Amino acid sequence: MEVGTSIVLSLPDLGEVEALVVWNSDGYYGAAFTSPLSRSAVETMLSSSKVVWPTFSPVTAEAPAQRHSVEPVEPVLACAVHEPGKPPMIVRTVGIVTAAGLLWTLVAWAALSI
User: Fold this and answer.
1) Number of helices and strands (H, E) in the chain?
2) What are the b/e assignments for 22-52, b being 16+ CB within 10 Å?
3) What distance in Å separates the CA atoms of residue 55 and residue 80, rounded to the nearest whole number?
4) Can you tell me whether residue 15 is helix, strand or coil?
5) Cα 16 to Cα 109: distance, rounded to the nearest angstrom
6) Given pLDDT bands bounded at 50, 70 and 90, which one contains residue 47?
7) What does the mean pLDDT of the chain come to?
8) d(Cα 71, Cα 55) in Å, to the nearest integer?
9) From the CB of residue 19, how many other CB atoms can be counted at a distance below 10 Å?
10) Nearby residues of 74 by Cβ (< 8 Å), 6 or more positions away
11) CA distances from 13 to 73, 85, 99, 110 (A)
């Protein structure tokens, strides 16, 4: 789809809303709604427990609207990846904070004993 193409998005709990394609890159698209969504409409849409990709269709004078369905995707939790050969991130973090505390204690002791 080209930038400026008018599309209709089918959003969960909201139905169909019109938008314009404002950017595209390697098969990904960004769109701007032609009419702002109300706060309650956005809260309703985001309150669902699963991530659901909207169905969209381009609307042009040359071609009738087409439906492109995308299967819902299970949510994925982001987490730190454990690097082989290194202690877990929490162990490294505790070590750094402890070492910093001990060094500041040493600096304060040296400053007070002068």
Assistant:
1) 2, 4
2) eeeeeeeeebeeeeeeeeeeeeeeeeeeeeb
3) 32
4) strand
5) 68
6) confident
7) 77
8) 9
9) 21
10) 50, 51
11) 17, 48, 52, 65
Contact in structure between 80 and 89 (CB atoms under 8 Å): yes
CA dihedral of 74, 79, 82, 87, whole degrees rounded to 10: -150
Count of CA atoms in the C-beta half-sphere (13 A) of 72? 10
| Residue entry with tokens 């698209």 | 29
Q: What is the mean pLDDT of residues 82-87?
A: 75
Query: What is the rounded CA–CA span in Å between residue 40 and residue 11?
Result: 14
Whole-prediction pTM value?
0.40
